[in-house]
Amino acid sequence: MTGQSSRSVGHVPPGQVTLVGGGPGAAELLTAAATEALRHADIVLFDRLAPNDELATLAPNATLIDVGKRAGSHPVSQTGIEQLMVDHALSGKRVVRLKGGDPYVFGRGSEEVLACHRNGIAVTVISGVTSAIAVPAAAGIPLTHRGMSHAFTVISGHAPLTENELEGLKLLGSTVVVLMGVGTLPTLSQGLLRHGMSPDLPVAIIERGFSATQRTTVSTLSAVLADAATAGVRSPAVLVIGEVVRLAFRGDDAAEDLVARAAAFAVSD
């Protein structure tokens, strides 16, 4: 019988698969259920952006298989990854598919669940901390703030947005979070400007979130292309577009400065 198990999500029964959201890359942001699943795993198929530096400790009894995709390099195709999951599970192994962020936020997790279902393999999904929220927070950027933004929209930057999608973002007026968006930043920024977003709207590019080399570049919608080129911005990075970027931590800025930047948007209780 296929289906998602309602039993302990941390323990992977033999011959089953658990999709684990590994968060933005820091092992300490793994959930308790994720670490339990890894502890019992026989096979771990892991992505490039998953927290893999400590996998030998987190999954002490598992065979570790790197299936990560990099820009312009896909050593193992998506179909190949799914076949590996199925083959190992059918051989009676406890399989953990470890993905960066959350499996269901631009992670192709649903495709992998369907592959298991098609082959009669029970599968459990363990949600992860999505980089769409966690990485901006690490840079001091809330996605909502009273008087600034009461909603946020998360989009994929893998492909350029359509004109309707660009217009929709302008009409929503929400904070925009872009994952995997460095490559399409030119078409996104120019498209948003074309549809009437303010040239002065703040933009933040947060590179390598939660790593020792995390870096935030703060700019505006009209200047972000030039500033990104000057800074040499590279993937992986999370983009945030909206007034909330004014609350970003800026190195050694005093708390008084942060409060002053927020004061213009303050609303009474």
**Unreliable segments of 5+ consecutive residues:** 1-7
The counted number of beta strands is: 10
- What gap, in angstroms, lies between the N and C termini? 53 Å
Trace the largest sheet across and list its strands.
3-2-4-1-5
Number of helices: 9
Q: What composes the largest sheet?
A: 5 strands, parallel
- Overall mean pLDDT: 89
Q: What is the helix/strand order?
A: EHEHEHEHEHEHEHEEHEH
Q: Characterize the overall form.
A: elongated
State the share of residues found in helices, binned by percent.
Answer: 25-40%
Question: Over all CA atoms, what is the radius of gyration?
Answer: 20 Å
How much β-strand is present in the residues? 15-25%
By helix and strand content, what is the structural category? alpha/beta
Task: Describe the fold and architecture.
- The protein is α/β, with parallel strands linked by helices and 269 residues long.
- Helix content is 30%, strand content 19%.
- The protein contains nine helices and ten strands.
- Strands 3-2-4-1-5 form a five-stranded parallel sheet, with helices on both faces. A five-stranded mixed sheet has the order 6-7-10-8-9, sandwiched between helices.
- The longest helix is centred in the first third of the chain and has 13 residues.
- The radius of gyration is 20 Å and the shape is elongated.
- The N and C termini lie far apart (53 Å).
- The N terminus is likely disordered.
